[in-house]
Amino acid sequence: MNKKYRKTIIAGNWKMNLLPSDVKPYTDELRQLAGKVRHCEVVVCTPFVMLPQAVKAFRDSRISVGAQNVSDKDSGAFTGEVSASQLRDLGVKYVIVGHSERRAYYGETDEIVCAKVKAVLNAGLYPIICVGETSAQREQGVTDEVVSMQVKLALSGVPAEKVRHIVIAYEPIWAIGTGKTATPEDAADVCTKIRAIIRALYGARTARAVTIQYGGSMNPKNAYDLLAMHDIDGGLIGGASLKPADFAAIIDAANQ
Ligand code: 13P
């Protein structure tokens, strides 16, 4: 694995699962199991209501906390929204932006995704920007065009010095929650192309510093082969992050 220039990041996305009362048992177990996190950074992205507890529980550990969404606005009369500066003040470090579930069910356009990326970066936090094609788009052979457009639009107007702080998660929609994983070769092929886009936009030094994750039915069995690929610098894990033992096994695969 070429991890010389960039961090390997293993991030769990709980989505809308678990309860506030589950946080303590989960964090206790994960802290114990993942006590020897060495070569990667670990992030746990909980629902908003569990973030304060998670931040407290992972304090003084090598595990960071992330949110799953954020407002594109800085502050003001936006009922029900949560701003990036509120997350930062809480001790949150990462924010998932543009997950395919938000794009599909909550009308998040590429323009909104871009505004959220900027809000996160301006607050000094790290966005995990999700991109990926549908199964129909893959069958039509337009994966590269779709992903390229999503990456370019998410980054439009983002200055070079901020791009090093972003993480991109390639999550083919057909692989999310389906048990169908992209082959390591197919996943790495798209991740390599994403890096090429960043290189074309921002130059080689910036491109090699950006962490590009794979997400979509990653589990303890397939993680090692996926993470061994040159351009796959980590994972964004849904279902398998809900059990500390499974998540810790994936962290172990990244530590090899
Ligand atoms: P699964 O790991 O459950 O397929 O979810 C992937 C994902 O969407 C992470 O953001």
What's the SSE pattern?
EHEHEHEHHEHHHEHHEHEH
What is the tally of beta strands? 8
Query: What is the share of helical residues?
Result: 40-55%
Give the spatial strand order of the biggest sheet.
1-2-3-4-5-6-7-8
Please give a structural write-up:
By secondary structure, the chain is α/β, with parallel strands linked by helices. It has helices spanning 20-33, 51-58, 84-90, 100-105, 110-122, 135-139, 143-154, 160-163, 184-202, 204-209, 223-227, 244-255, and strands at residues 8-13, 40-45, 63-67, 94-97, 126-131, 167-170, 211-215, 234-237. The protein has a single domain, classed as TIM Barrel, CATH 3.20.20.70. The chain is built from 12 helices and 8 strands. Helix 1 runs parallel beside helix 2 (51-58), helix 1 runs parallel beside helix 12 (244-255) and helix 7 (143-154) packs across helix 9 (184-202). 1,3-dihydroxyacetonephosphate is lined by residues 13, 99, 171, 176-177, 215-218, 236-240.
What is the gist of this entry?
With 256 residues, this protein is α/β, with parallel strands linked by helices. Helices cover 43% and strands 16% of the residues.
Task: Offer a few descriptive terms.
single chain, 256 residues, alpha/beta, TIM Barrel, eight-stranded parallel barrel, 8 strands, 43% helix, binds 1,3-dihydroxyacetonephosphate
Give the helix/strand layout:
Layout: E1 8-13, H1 20-33, E2 40-45, H2 51-58, E3 63-67, H3 84-90, E4 94-97, H4 100-105, H5 110-122, E5 126-131, H6 135-139, H7 143-154, H8 160-163, E6 167-170, H9 184-202, H10 204-209, E7 211-215, H11 223-227, E8 234-237, H12 244-255
Parallel strand pairs: 1-2, 1-8, 2-3, 3-4, 4-5, 5-6, 6-7, 7-8
Helix pairs in contact: 1-2, 1-12, 7-9
1,3-dihydroxyacetonephosphate is lined by residues 13, 99, 171, 176-177, 215-218, 236-240.
